[in-house]
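Example 4.3 (complexes with small molecules)
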Amino acid sequence: MTEHGVAVVALDREQHRGAVDHRLFGSFVEHMGRCVYTGIYEPGHPSADAEGFRGDVSAFVRELGVTLVRYPGGNFVSGYDWRDGIGPREQRPRRLDLAWRSIETNQVGTDEFMSWAKARGVEPMLAVNLGTAGVLEAAALVEYCNVPEGTEWSERRRRNGALKPHEVKLWCLGNEMDGPWQTGHTTAERYGALAAEAAKAMRLVDPDIELVACGSSSHEMPTFGYWESTVLEAAGEHVDYISMHAYYEEHDGDRASFLASGASMDSFIEDVAATIDAVAARRRSKRSRKINISFDEWNVWYQSRYPGSEAMEIDIAGPRIEDQYSALDAVVVGDLLSSLINHSDRVKIACLAQLVNVIAPIMTEPGGAIWRQPTFHPFAAVASSARGHSLVTRVSSAELATRRYGDVPAVAASATHDPTTGDVAVFLTNRADHAVTVDLRHPGFDGWTITSARHIAADDRGPRNRETAPDVSLTPLGTSSSEDARSTTLALPPHSWTVLRAATASID
Ligand code: AHR
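Answer. The structure with alpha-L-arabinofuranose bound is encoded below.
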């Protein structure tokens, strides 16, 4: 007989963590591989607009529901001089980018990116170089972007065609400065001191900006924890967020651990939140200065398959880490999104890394086709349906034994409720290798009516390429609601992720 599990997921309208921030559905455009060139930007492409941006990519970005985009790196930013990317294109230098061993032509820079972001309705999040540049260059970039007129850099922007300021609110103080691979890698003490000084100067240029200090590049970094507390001791009074980065992959066929990536993300976030609070308590910081989390790089990335930049021939916008994703990867991405929603009281910004071609939900062919990777679908589903409050879900399910993370719940859930519209969205992951029947209890939601239930299940077909990726999408899943509309039953297939949407009575 085939094994079949049961689980209970209970929703309570009154129990929530506050609003899900729209910035949780961000992504990331780095000058890396084909993310910018032949990704968002390809002047000769049949769909290109007057500025050279691919129209087909823009349509997919809108469909994905991305709200914010981090730019221009990533490791790239630690060798980048933003002044190379402004002014007449023909005068811009071709520079050797050490992070990804490629030649950066600088045909896209700050003004072009701003124009791209604005036209697509996404909020820009700019990173400054604190690896090989410093306080002066960072403050000058804020001046270039945000000062209306009358100063050297604001007038340069105006001469370059941007008469109005770009009004960039969100700024990252460097990237992964704890990582030995970072150009300009340094200690927590030195980075903390530099981040504080850069933050002070940038805020003197524009007091309204929000600042993100670099946290650890992963939970596994040997300096994890010490790095966060040291940086926050030094720079905590000057920043609003600390960053988190995490990439997940299936190691040596250990599928159970891979499916538990969301549980690993949960503990990473909880450890960082605890560290922020411990430093705040020690420093007797005011509660109004509460520091939150910017999870500004997360995804599935098969890093173990990446040969490393050293092994790469230097080229111009050649492919880098163009992972092809499977339906299993899409299930894990859905589960990671649930973890973010379940921590939306602390995680206010998150960026799926990256947006196009580089470990991305969107793939393009130079001069040609575009397609969605399997991971596109859970992101688009959550970005379009998670509205209002993040509900506290009570899950009671069997445990799943994993090699990397110990026992984790076999079923994971997150849910949102918009009190003004009554809309509810529930996201369910079945991490088990057998079907699980979920008894979803929603007694406090009057007028509960399911409007859709769709799912994706892992299969044995592995990574999908250009021909096979379009076959993958979310497909309908059967549900049955009780007569009194207080509960719904769903049979979750093995290794699957489901999104259920319901209309309920609004509270107004
Ligand atoms: O997203 C790819 C790379 O991963 C980024 O450049 C870096 O920040 C991280 O290590």
